[in-house]
Every structure is written in structure tokens, then in C-alpha cells.
Amino acid sequence: MLASVLEPIINWVIQFVSDLGFIGVFLGMAIEAASIPLPSEIIMGIAGFLVYDGRLTVGGNPVLTIIVVGLIGALGNALGSTSMYVLGSRGGRPVLNKYGKYVHVTEEKFERVEGWLKKYGDKIIFIGQLLPVIRTFISLPLGILKVNFVKFRIYTFVGAFIWCTLLATVSYFLGEEWKRLTEYIHQFEIVIAFALAAAIAYFIIKKVYKRRKAKIEGKIETEE
User: Fold this and answer.
1) Residues 69-100: tens digit of each pLDDT
2) CA 41, 153, 56: angle at the middle one, nearest 5?
């Protein structure tokens, strides 16, 4: 049922990027970053295939073309995500309550982002751009929460550039089988989840170790 609903959208995205090339990549990623759930793996996936097929080139150099495709995708993402950030920062919670449902940003998703921000700080801006689904809706809550705008722009752009370039590169090497990219994305999500868990565990252990060390040093100084 879900596949039959998504298929026309996927076919439209493929046709859109195929017809418009670099402009299609830019607009597609801008739409996706504006909390409208177009699949970035399809946008950048078809872009990578077009490079493989020789229909999207920069100076006939595939490596350079992939980098340019990633850059254009990141610029489109920056436009869409910034528009949502500004909307959130200016409108605050009333915007979420009134329009959130239209861009698939629920109260539950907002609270999730708020919790991540409290727990992990600004790093979540960058990490969020490397996670499917989350990257689509994260900008509006970050705007409402008024995270530092400069950090938001930098972390979002860098994360989006890595994401877009990675998708286009994998698709390029898959060639005719580029639609298998969605399978690899699922595996990538699992790897990211384990990496985040390991990073969090390391952070907690390091913090506990520092506290214990400070207590021991304080105790020694007191005895002396």
C-alpha cells in the first residue's frame, strides 16, 4: 500500500531531476529541506546515476561533477532549511501549533529535537543532516528553539554537503542498479545509530572519570 502511494512521487522526482539537471537537484533538495518529505536518496540518487550515464557533467570529469552535484544539493538544502529556521524563529510555538501538521512537524517531533539539543548541544544540527527523515523536519524546531544562526548555517551546510555527496557517489558506483541506494541507506542508518551510541557512551564515561578524578585530587589536597 505504502509503496503504491510513494511510487508516483518517486517517479515524479526522477523525471524532475532528469529534465532539469543541476537546477532539479537544487530545487529538489530545497523542497526536501523545507519539511516537505521528498526522498533525498532519490533526488541525489538519480543525480548520481545521471553522472554515471554521462547526462550530467562538468568538464567531462565524473569526480568533479559529483562534488559539484553535492555542493548544489547542499546549497538547495541550505535554502530550504534556512527558510524553515527563519519561520520558526520569527513565529515561535504558534507557528508549530498552526502550521506544523502541514509540514509533518508534530509536537512530538519538536519535543524530540528539544531533548536532543539539551542532551547533545549544537552537534545535533550537524548529526541531524546525516539522518534520513530527521533531516527533513529538524530545521523548524531549531528555529523555534533559536539555536545560534551562524552555527545552524555552517553545521547544516557541511552536514548536507557530506550527505548529498555520499548519496551521489554511491549511486554513481551502483550505476544501473542505483535504486538499491535505499537499501544502503537503511544499513547506513544502523551504522550511524551504533556510532552515536558509542559516542554517547564515551562521553558519559569520560565525564564520570573526570568527576571521580576531581574528587580524588580534592580529597588528597584536603588530607595534605
Assistant:
1) 999 999 999 999 999 999 989 988 888 888 78
2) 40
